[in-house]
Amino acid sequence: MAVAAQRVVRAANLEYLAHYPERTFTVEGGGFRVRGYRESDLEAFIKLYIQVLSLPPWNEPGTREHVEKTLEHFLVQNGLGLIVAQAWKGDGAGMKDAGLIGFSVAFQIGVDHFPFLEAALRDRIENPDSDRLRLYYAAKMAVSPEYRGFGVSSALNQVLVGNAVERYQDLEMYTLLRTHIESTAAKIWMKFGFENTGVEDPNPAEKGKFFFLRRMS
Fold first, then answer.
1. Are the C-beta atoms of 147 and 156 separated by less than 8 Å?
2. Which range marks the domain in which residue 103 is found?
3. 115-122 mean pLDDT
């Protein structure tokens, strides 16, 4: 994509995310709201990304440069959904902002985006060459260790996929994701109806990570 085109897509994505429908979730002692990413979230996003994704089993570089480059890659993708979970503690006058505790990102890709996966997708997608097909790739999800077990991952999945289904309600929509076969995330995604394609990422650095697919509409 040319630089000028990337700028247009980036601006359109940020505008869409600025008006992304918010959802509020209450837990004991506080709660969190799920909303679209804003440019003012940058510092908190970088901190959370490194805190979670630089550790096993992800082992991504724990540098600001890596996160900024990854974020810019997200922001120029078509059909972007980049949402964050922002927590609060207490209630009423004693309510305090507890910062970003999670994020999830997905965007549109073609059936041939991953050549090694294309055959498996064509076997499972009803009309793989249709103009009405939207294949939505859930690229990343992260939740702060301190807030795991409070339903943050489920909430992020519910909001991200729910809004995507509404956005493309008149089209044939599938969601694709990649996660480690033995991770807690794999169990969560399968709970939401995702099926293992049986295809493992061939990159040695991604050993054990398989692709999961679910038809949404």
1. no
2. 3-215
3. 97
Enter the DSSP assignment of 130: -
Looking at the chain, which runs of residues are DSSP E strands? 23-27, 30-36, 81-89, 96-109, 133-143, 172-180, 195-200, 209-215
Partners of residue 176 on adjacent β-strands:
137, 213
Structure tokens at 108: 């549109």
- Which run of H or of E encompasses 166? helix 152-167
Among 104, 103, 121, which Cα is nearest to 112's? 121
> Alpha-carbon distance 14 to 75, whole Å?
8
Q: Residue 209 forms beta bridges with which residues?
A: 180
Residue 88 to residue 96: CA distance in whole angstroms: 5
- How far apart CA 95 and CA 116 sit, in angstroms, is 49
Residue 172 belongs to domain with CATH number: 3.40.630.30
133-149 confidence digits (pLDDT tens):
999 999 999 999 999 88
pLDDT at position 75 over 90: yes
Task: Note the pLDDT tens digit of each residue in 157-191.
Answer: 889 888 888 888 788 999 999 988 888 778 878 88
Average pLDDT of the residues of the chain: 91
pTM: 0.88
Domain count across the chain: 1
